[in-house]
Task: structure prediction
Amino acid sequence: MSRLANTIEAILYLKAQPLTIAQIAEFAKCDRDTAAEGLIELMGDYAHRDGALEIAETEEGYALQLREIYKPLIDSIVPLDIGLGALRTLAAIALRGPIAQSDLVELRGSGVYQHVPDLVEQGFVKKRRQSDGRSSWLQITEKFYQHFEIDKLPQISNLRLPQPITADREAHRMDEPPAQISNHEDPSRHDEESKGL
Result:
């Protein structure tokens, strides 16, 4: 393989999350066309390997990941101690992150106050204070991508997720009604949250 293809392999390994061609080009310090050529070479090389890893194209970009057949090893070698309630909270953060913790509480209930510290401690979520200090921004970490695929997380499509707060929306935020739960919500959700799940 060329030096560029090797460099792209190293970038995907170190970032441990999907990257776009533009991001790969930035990290590799080359233009997008050159990065695309190097990526194609790398993908071709991996396609002919009989190994455990592959270069996969996802909706978020290109990632170096375990082949599907080896993914069960993750659970046996690196078992996760995450309850269903916390897993649904993690799914909400993954799908709408960065998300304000206050918005997440409106979406998932008070159980968030137990879920978030556990998810931060396990390295799946990072937390930073908002500039006004009223709440914290929550988003997933690179470790998340090593363990999960977003489409394999528990279904939370029955929830109306709040839109990410942008600078334009922040100015009008006080005029907006709080996020509401769909009428088709899972009735077991109330039981989960009352138990802090």
